[in-house]
Write a structure and sequence with these properties.
This protein has 182 residues and is mainly alpha-helical. The protein is 85% helix and 0% strand. It is elongated and about 60 Å long. InterPro entries: PCN-like_spectrin-like_rpt (IPR049538), Plakin (IPR043197).
Length: 182
């Protein structure tokens, strides 16, 4: 039993490292896209960025399942591994939030570019506020769609892993709420 749990720890260490690399890649793409937007250009790798975020999300779901197996087996490193995976999940939520609020706000077809939006905001404050509100609503609707399409586990460890992931999403929503209240 202890040997099996130790293999899970090794697997978690390796796969959390891979997940971190995936998040680093997504972050680099996001920053590149934001620089393009700041220069008044259209994003060029939005689809690739979305794929990277989805891949990291899938990796985290599997990691949460493994972490739950450690916690169920009362492995001494269970809590430590949970914190590591949870930090990765928080980073994913932060990247998704930034992607939704900043990058999508500037993509043609969704809204005007950031430069044009700033110019219009000075000329038409009510229209800019309305557009911003529409972008925020689109973010909420996308998260609702993602939750509705999410698969649910058939066993306790996978359900508990998904619960951990959901807690991370909930924290992102709470941070989003604080921004709205500001």
């Amino acid at each position: 039993r202890l040997e099996r749990l130790q293999r899970i720890v090794s697997k978690l260490q390796m796969e959390s490292g891979l997940c971190e690399e995936q998040l680093n890649q997504a972050d680099a793409l996001l920053q590149s896209e934001l620089r393009l937007l700041a220069a008044g250009k259209a994003p060029q790798h939005a689809a690739e960025l979305e794929r990277d975020l989805e891949k990291a999300d899938a990796m985290l779901r599997a990691l949460f399942g493994d972490v739950q197996a450690l916690k169920d087996g009362r492995h001494p490193q269970g809590e430590q591994m949970y914190r590591r995976v949870y930090r990765l999940h928080e980073r994913l939520v932060a990247l998704r939030t930034e992607h939704s609020l900043r990058l999508r706000a500037g993509t043609p077809g969704t809204a005007v570019t950031a430069v044009t939006m700033a110019a219009r905001a000075r000329a038409e404050p009510e229209d800019a506020a309305l557009r911003y509100l529409q972008e925020l609503l689109a973010w909420v609707e996308e998260n609702q769609r993602r939750l509705a399409a999410a698969e649910w586990g058939a066993d306790l460890p996978s359900v508990e892993g998904q619960l951990g992931a959901q807690r991370g999403v909930h924290q992102g929503v709470e941070e989003f709420r604080a921004k709205i209240e500001r």
